[in-house]
Fold Alpha/beta fold hydrolase.
Amino acid sequence: MRIDPAGRVVRSTAIPHSETNRGTPIRTFLHTTDGVTIDSVYDPPAFVYDGSGSSARGLVFVVAHGFTGDVDRPHVRRVVEAFTQYGAVVTFSFRGHGASGGASTVGDREVLDLAAAVEWARSLGHARVVTVGFSMGGSVVLRHAALYGDEHEGRTGAHTDAVVSVSAPARWYYRGTAPMRKLHWLVTRPEGRLVGRYGFRTRIHHKEWDPVPLSPVEAVPRIAPTPLLIVHGDRDGYFPLDHPRMLADAAPGHAELWLEHGMGHAENAAPDELLRRIGDWAVSQES
């Protein structure tokens, strides 16, 4: 299914490996296991699969944006454009963001949103899924990989084959930088949630976590043997370098850590050259 320009839901039978689908995105609303509608977009690759056994054949990236992002943000679309040079791309708006339903839980139940997007990507015929998350999305891809791996939920269709976490926190409730103190005000205060709703198109749930979800650093050891890449800028204004180092240390010998000189935070700060290197890394992880 997709959404036409008038906002109506229409059926689509596009097949991702087909010449007829080249250059034609699909837009639809997915449904999570807890009943939230998730605005989602499929972008086919910028090339036609030639059947030669290329390592990019069948690859799809599932991109998880940062807090206050959505599928239509220019910085998210720039990521999509970069990754379509390597495979297909599924993007979606987390709950409470953009046209998706529900309210943001700032990284907790968002794992269900990502699981729905991964299942959709596989249902379109893609054999290999690489999840790529930025900031809040970076924490979600880590927890998703830990919770939907072989030893936990089994090969249900929601599992990923490789994980890229960019600009993610290692631990919850961090307030050590001014941007994070502002974010906590936005999330925890009624007036902050009003700013989130009307200023950032982000509807934030008013309840605190209960129970507190598995933290990113607790999730990382459970991801192996799924390939894991951790990316962080040395000028990140939200999370200093002890966060990515803590994540990498939690998976000794398994996680690959890239500390990017001069890079700030998340999608807005990721240069095109870095996105190309992530694409190359994803292609190289074919088992």
User: Anything to note?
Assistant: The longest helix spans residues 110-123. Confidence is low (pLDDT under 50) at residues 1-21, 52-56, 151-155.
